[in-house]
Structures are given as structure tokens and as C-alpha cells.
């Protein structure tokens, strides 16, 4: 054992020298060639900080030494493999730690505020659950622990809440547990001393159903997953069958097509390799083209390229000894110069191509396995428009699916919904009401090229098929399943190009945002539809999987600054409408979208820079949600949630499509009620006008979800005035702290655009609300 006795010197070994350290100490990893060299370390009084490990025949040890000691060790053949820590880094980490401790200590010394944001129960397919969210004003500190207690079957139970943070921001504490009996209340206690109690209410409970259910309502029009070809055939069939209720919108921007150039990599994936691509698409003649690099078998042969119909032969150059001398770069240049009308060539993934090209032969192929009836040409994306009156006079609702190719369930949701609307119209009063009152737009398949690739070539394809990797990147055949743009990262609002996170600029990343915003025709189609039909007020972006139900903001920057949050009134509308939609989903088989997966995107999932729902909300003012179908299933045998995946067995995918079609129709019901709303909201403040001895916090109450516009400087409130926002992430509306005599002027506006008291903020009227708060 080479270093077996070096932990402490034996009598035969010299005592370590006394060290006088005046320089900076560095923590480093050394490469030590042998035992004699290791002994020199000890002779200098330097102790091993960590164990000794052999790596590729060299021994590695960690020590703390000065720069001059390290220079001396180099004379013994000992090299510094890595500097693990400098004194500056150590000081920085200590300072960082102290700053955190100081911040936490300061927060804890302040009076803790503890809120129970949600205390809910729900029953899923196989169990009942208790769900709690609580937020402490000092919850960002890891030393803050929250504990829940409740009574179940006469027995007090407790659970510690988990702290939830995202990108450095504390969101809340939470827990979710199966229960045998629903408790009436739950108490949260902080180890910092605060406590709070809340009644436990049913999640998704108590929402009245519109009308009486029709026992003859028909559903279940899907019996398998559907390819783009099948989807288009079904769309055309429905249009022919229901010409009075449905029309097909041919979207203006054709996709780039389910097609590829035929390719081959000639060589061993190094700087000796040449990537060859056909000029024409594979299906147009590139497939089957032959390329061969040959050894001429003689000395002093030149590099030549010959073309015989569909075969290209490259005779590599040799030297006086008959050895090959053509580099990969030489061959690339020769092919581009002499066969450039048939193929293009480049070195492998940015290599210099300085290695000697290899003798090789290949037949070019586009690698696509779709059957011949699947068109390779640019595709026209079809939108379904359903309504009795399709002239733009009715409130519009948009549902669109399969931006991500591998999400096979999502187009089924849309097709099932379309068939229900059309086939129940004649005999179901509720369906007739929706179709007569709304202008419904449905895009079953935003991304048909990617969907074809997912069905026939690579099931986990997420993006479209556009290859933006240039000749100096991964544009070779081996990278074909890494190409494409994530269409839900390709939009102009909150884009990575503007500094938001949650997307990538790498052309081979699954979240590649594209070379610029809205670079892809599929994304431009969404923008076009929203521009063309200005009556669209609501949208649903349908994805899978995970059982999420979300809305804007969908992106934040590196400082976790999100896109502007909705006002308190807009957020309240999102929550209220969501409850109705989620109840509809639950009706089918009891699937509950969990509270922890419901809310603004950054609060329940992550940042998604450049997503399409953010574009629709911020640019077009369309209330837009994001379904993530495929909620996890609870396994009572293992007491665990089980993920269903992007392409579950059709038995499960079928159920997901049916329940989320319920949810999409629930959105139509929200839009219907919204369209009927002609009643202005009412609002009050608490406390109201009057004289108070000290500062007061003023809260607003509204008769329905509504945005409050207010001023506190005595001026007339307008749409340019401040809007009442949220007090924090997943918290209720903010309160105004009034610490001096102030006149508050305000009015409210509901999501339907009704203004309180029919006040005209753009005019000269003064029928806004006003209250004077006098502080003595």
C-alpha cells in the first residue's frame, strides 16, 4: 500500500517541519507521483486534508498550502491538479453566510405574520386528502418550521409543512396528506411563535351546474390516438356533415413540412468525418443517393470528385508513399465545389476537419419512417370554427393543442369537444345555448410536422422539425431528433431574447426558443388568429402531462421578476373561473387538479419564457389558461402518486381526453356567462370614511371579481391610475396603509368591461367612489 503509513510519521520518518504561514492559504488538490514525493509534503509540515485516491495511475491528495510551498512542491514532481478554495473565496462564502444569517435573524426578530392561504379537502378517485398552504412573513428562513394539527376520528394528528421556493423566492409552506375523516379545521403553528386557525373547506365544491343534465347527452367520440392525417380527415368530415354550424379556417402560414434533407456522416464522428446532405429534400430525390470515398491505390494521386447519375465518388489524394493525404476539410471543399448542385458538405459539428478523411461509403437518407400517404410537403394547419353566427358579433373562445408533438392526448381533447358541440346541438338545450351564443375556435394540432415525427420516428419529439443548426453545429444525421423549435417558447412576450428564463438558445435544446421571437410559422398562426378575430376573449392552451391548471404570468427574469401580475380583480376572476372549469373536469371520474398545481405558472411550475398564453394575455387581453392534462393517479397500495406520462396506454389517455373535454366545455360556460354580464360591479372600502386616531389599513370589497382603479392624491381616477394588486404570491388583494389624512377616489371594472356606476373614466364625470380618511 503506497501511502499506507503516511497518516502519521513512524520513527524511521522525519518529523514534520514547523510551518510559519504568512502567505495566503490555498486549498488544493495535488497529483503526487510516488511515496517519496508524498514524504516531501510531510517534511514541509503540510498535512493531508483529505483521503488519498488513485486516478489513472496518479495519486491525488488534498492539502492546504501557500503559493510558495506549492512552487517548492513542483520541484518534486508534485503538480496542482485543481485549486479548490482560495482565501478570497472562503471570505466571500463566509460573508454570504453571515449576510443570510443576519437577514434571517433580523426577520425572525420582527413580529411574525402567519397566514393560512388555503385549507381544503377533496376526494379523488380512491382517497380523500387534506391540503394546506400557509405563509409566514419569516418563512424564507430555513429555520422557520410550520406544523399543522387537526382532529381526525377523535385523534389529534399533526404534520410538518414543506417549504416551497422557486428560483430563490419563498412562496409558501404546504402539505397534502390522505385522511380517513375530513377535519373541520386545521391549526398552523410556527416555531417562531405565531399561530393561525382556519376552517377546512371543500376544494372545487359547491359550484352550481348550469341547467339540468340531459340524460341523452352524447359523448365519447374517440377510440384511439390520432395522427395529423386522421385529425385532418375528421375535421373535413365534420365540416361536410355540419355546414351550418362549422367552418374550417385554413391558417395562412404553412409549416416547413414533415421532411428532411437526406444525409450521411462519412467517417467516425471526429475531425476526420464529413457530413454530406442532399440539396433536394429526401423524398424529392435525396434518398438513395450514394456517396463513396475511395483510396485510388497509387502514389501521388490527386483529390477528385466524379458524379455518375445518383452516385458521387471521391477519390482521395495520396503522397509519394501512397498514403492518404486528403483531410476532411479538403473533401468538404471539393464536394461543395464540384458536386454542389447535388449535395452540400461540412465538417462534423464544428471540427476543423484537419484529420485524414477515411475510406467510406454511404447511401443518403432522410431517416423518416412515416408511410407514403403522410405528406412531406408544408402543411396547412386547420382551425375549426363552431357557432350558429360566425360573424364576429359573439364572444370568442380559443382552444388549441399539441404545440408539443409528444403530447398525444391533447388533440383528442379538442376533437372530443368539437364532436360534442356539433352532435348534441340538435337535442341538448345547454349545447345549443353555447353554440348559439359563442364563436368557438379550436386548433386540434398546432404542430403537425412534429406530431408526425413523434408518431413515426421519435416518440419523445417535443418541438417542430425545423433545423436551425448551421453547418458549424449539430446539423448531421445523428442529431436529427434534437432539432426543432419549442413552439411554446417562440413567442414575443417574456422571451429569452429579452432576458427571461425558462428557454434555451441552443438549437439542440428541448426548449430552444428559435433564432428570434415568432420565427416559426406555427407560432405566427396563433398570432394571426388572435389578430384576425378580435372578438376572442378567452383561450385554453392544452398540454400534458401532470394535471396542472395555470395562467399568466408565465415567465420571470434572472432576478425572478415576473411579467406584470394580473390585478387583484383579474386574479380573482382567474381563480373563480378556474373553480368552475376544474369542477367540470372532476365530474367525469373524480379527477381533482390539486391546489398546489393550480395558479399562476411561476407559482406552481417554473418560468416558461416566450410561451403563447403570455402573448395572448399581455398583447391581446385574452384570459388564457394552460391545461396540463394527465393528472397523477393515486395508488392506495403504495400511498404514492403515479405519473401517467405523455403517451399513456389509450385506456388512460381516453379518460384524460373525456375529462378535459368536460373542462374545455366548462370554459365555454364561463365565456357564456361573461358574455351575458351587463351588470356593473359594486365596491366598498373597510374601514369607510371617518376619523381615526392612528394609521389604518384600508381594504376593498367588490360584489364580484373586479379591478379597482384608485388615487390617493385627490385626483380623478382613470384607467391610467394605479390598480389594486396582490399583497404577495398567492395572497389576497393588497391593503392601502393610510397614515395621514387622505381622500381615496376609486371605481371598479369587472372582466366583462362593466364600470361601476357606469362611470366614464375617459370623460369628465365625477360619479366615482370617494372617501375621506381623517387621521388625528
The overall pLDDT average reads: 90
Largest sheet, in brief, is: 8 strands, mixed
Given the C-alpha coordinates, what overall shape results? globular
Side by side, the strands of the main sheet go: 14-22-24-23-25-28-26-27
Rg: 34 Å
What's the CATH topology name of the largest domain?
A: Aminopeptidase
Number of helices: 13
Overall structural domain count: 5
* Quantity of strands, as a count: 37
CATH superfamily of the largest domain: Zn peptidases
The CATH class name of the largest domain reads Alpha Beta
How would you portray this structure in words?
The protein has 13 helices and 37 strands. The termini are far apart. An eight-stranded mixed sheet has the order 14-22-24-23-25-28-26-27, sandwiched between helices. The chain has a five-stranded mixed sheet with strand order 9-10-6-5-13, with no helix packed on it. Strands 2-3-1-4 form a four-stranded antiparallel sheet. It folds into five domains: about 1-85, no CATH class; about 110-200, Sandwich (Immunoglobulin-like), CATH 2.60.40; about 230-255 and about 380-465 and about 540-675, Zn peptidases (Aminopeptidase, 3-Layer(aba) Sandwich); about 260-365; about 685-775, Immunoglobulin-like (Sandwich), CATH 2.60.40. The chain is an alpha+beta fold and about 775 residues long. One of its GO terms (molecular function) is metallocarboxypeptidase activity. Keywords: Hydrolase, Metalloprotease, Protease, Zinc. This is Peptidase M14 domain-containing protein. Its cofactor is Zn(2+). Belongs to the peptidase M14 family.
Amino acid at each position: 500500500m503506497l501511502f499506507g503509513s503516511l497518516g502519521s510519521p513512524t520513527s524511521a520518518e522525519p518529523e514534520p517541519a514547523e510551518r510559519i504561514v504568512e502567505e495566503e492559504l490555498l486549498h488544493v488538490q495535488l497529483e503526487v507521483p510516488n511515496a517519496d514525493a508524498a514524504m516531501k509534503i510531510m517534511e514541509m509540515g503540510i498535512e493531508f486534508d483529505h483521503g488519498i485516491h488513485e486516478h489513472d495511475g496518479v495519486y491525488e491528495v488534498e492539502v492546504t498550502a501557500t503559493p510558495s510551498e506549492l512552487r517548492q512542491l513542483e520541484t518534486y514532481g508534485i503538480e496542482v491538479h485543481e485549486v479548490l478554495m482560495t482565501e478570497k473565496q472562503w471570505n466571500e462564502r463566509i460573508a454570504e453566510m453571515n449576510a443570510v444569517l443576519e437577514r434571517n435573524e433580523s426577520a425572525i426578530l420582527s413580529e411574525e405574520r402567519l397566514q393560512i392561504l388555503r385549507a381544503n379537502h377533496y376526494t379523488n378517485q380512491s382517497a380523500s386528502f387534506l391540503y394546506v398552504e400557509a405563509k409566514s412573513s419569516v418563512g424564507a428562513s430555513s429555520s422557520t418550521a410550520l406544523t399543522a394539527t387537526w382532529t381526525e376520528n377523535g385523534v389529534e394528528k399533526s404534520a410538518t409543512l414543506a417549504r416551497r421556493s422557486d428560483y430563490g423566492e419563498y412562496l409558501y409552506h404546504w402539505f397534502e396528506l390522505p385522511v380517513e375523516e375530513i377535519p373541520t379545521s386545521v391549526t398552523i403553528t410556527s416555531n417562531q411563535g405565531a399561530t393561525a386557525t382556519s376552517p377546512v373547506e371543500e376544494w372545487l365544491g359547491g359550484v352550481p351546474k348550469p341547467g339540468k343534465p340531459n340524460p341523452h347527452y352524447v359523448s365519447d367520440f374517440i377510440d384511439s390516438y390520432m395522427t395529423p392525417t386522421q385529425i385532418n380527415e375528421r375535421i373535413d368530415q365534420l365540416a361536410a356533415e355540419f355546414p351550418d354550424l362549422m367552418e374550417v379556417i385554413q391558417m395562412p402560414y404553412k409549416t416547413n413540412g414533415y421532411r428532411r434533407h437526406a444525409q450521411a456522416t462519412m467517417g467516425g464522428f471526429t475531425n476526420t468525418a464529413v457530413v454530406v446532405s442532399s440539396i433536394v429534400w429526401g423524398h424529392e430525390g435525396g434518398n438513395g443517393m450514394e456517396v463513396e470515398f475511395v483510396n485510388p491505390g497509387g502514389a501521388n494521386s490527386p483529390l477528385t470528385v466524379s458524379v455518375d447519375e445518383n452516385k458521387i465518388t471521391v477519390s482521395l489524394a495520396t503522397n509519394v508513399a501512397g498514403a492518404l493525404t486528403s483531410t476532411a476539410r479538403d473533401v468538404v471543399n471539393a464536394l461543395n465545389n464540384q458536386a454542389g448542385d447535388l449535395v452540400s458538405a461540412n465538417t462534423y459539428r464544428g471540427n476543423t476537419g484537419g484529420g485524414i478523411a477515411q475510406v467510406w461509403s454511404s447511401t443518403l437518407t432522410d431517416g423518416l419512417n412515416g408511410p407514403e400517404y403522410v405528406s412531406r410537403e408544408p402543411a396547412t394547419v386547420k382551425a375549426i370554427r363552431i357557432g350558429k353566427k360566425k360573424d364576429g358579433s359573439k364572444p370568442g373562445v380559443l382552444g388549441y393543442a399539441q404545440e408539443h408533438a409528444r403530447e398525444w392526448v391533447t388533440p383528442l381533447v379538442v376533437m372530443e369537444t368539437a364532436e360534442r358541440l356539433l352532435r348534441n346541438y340538435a337535442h341538448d338545450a345547454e349545447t345549443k345555448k353555447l353554440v348559439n351564443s359563442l364563436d368557438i375556435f379550436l386548433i386540434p394540432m398546432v404542430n403537425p410536422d412534429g406530431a408526425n415525427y413523434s408518431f413515426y420516428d421519435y416518440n419523445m419529439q417535443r418541438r417542430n422539425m425545423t433545423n436551425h443548426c448551421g453547418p458549424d453545429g449539430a446539423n448531421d444525421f445523428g442529431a436529427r431528433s434534437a432539432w426543432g423549435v419549442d413552439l411554446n417558447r417562440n413567442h414575443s412576450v417574456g422571451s429569452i431574447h429579452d432576458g427571461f428564463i425558462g428557454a434555451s438558445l441552443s438549437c439542440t435544446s428541448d426548449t430552444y426558443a428559435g433564432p428570434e421571437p415568432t420565427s416559426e410559422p406555427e407560432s405566427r398562426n396563433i398570432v394571426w388568429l388572435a389578430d384576425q378575430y378580435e372578438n376572442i376573449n378567452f383561450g385554453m392552451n392544452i398540454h400534458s402531462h401532470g394535471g396542472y391548471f395555470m395562467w399568466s404570468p408565465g415567465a420571470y427574469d434572472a432576478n425572478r421578476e415576473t411579467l406584470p401580475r394580473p390585478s387583484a380583480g383579474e386574479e380573482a376572476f382567474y381563480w373563480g373561473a378556474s373553480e368552475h372549469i376544474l369542477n367540470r373536469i372532476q365530474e367525469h371520474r373524480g379527477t381533482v387538479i390539486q391546489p398546489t398545481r393550480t395558479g399562476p405558472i411561476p407559482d406552481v411550475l417554473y418560468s416558461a419564457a416566450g410561451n403563447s398564453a403570455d402573448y395572448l394575455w399581455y398583447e391581446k387581453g385574452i384570459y388564457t389558461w394552460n391545461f396540463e392534462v394527465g393528472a397523477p393517479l393515486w395508488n392506495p397500495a403504495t400511498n404514492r402518486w403515479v405519473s401517467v406520462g405523455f403517451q399513456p396506454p389509450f385506456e388512460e389517455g381516453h379518460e384524460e381526453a373525456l375529462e378535459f373535454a368536460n373542462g374545455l366545455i366548462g370554459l365555454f360556460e364561463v365565456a357564456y356567462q361573461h358574455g351575458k354580464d351587463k351588470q356593473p360591479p359594486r365596491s366598498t372600502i373597510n374601514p369607510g370614511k371617518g376619523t381615526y386616531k392612528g394609521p389604518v389599513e384600508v381594504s376593498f370589497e367588490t360584489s364580484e371579481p373586479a379591478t379597482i382603479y384608485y388615487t390617493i392624491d385627490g385626483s380623478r381616477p382613470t384607467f391610467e391610475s394605479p390598480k389594486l394588486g396582490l399583497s404577495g404570491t398567492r395572497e389576497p388583494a393588497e391593503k392601502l396603509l393610510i397614515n395621514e389624512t387622505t381622500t381615496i377616489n376609486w371605481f371598479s371594472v369587472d372582466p366583462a368591461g362593466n364600470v361601476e356606476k357606469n362611470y366614464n373614466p375617459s370623460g369628465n364625470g365625477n360619479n366615482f367612489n370617494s372617501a375621506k380618511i381623517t387621521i388625528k
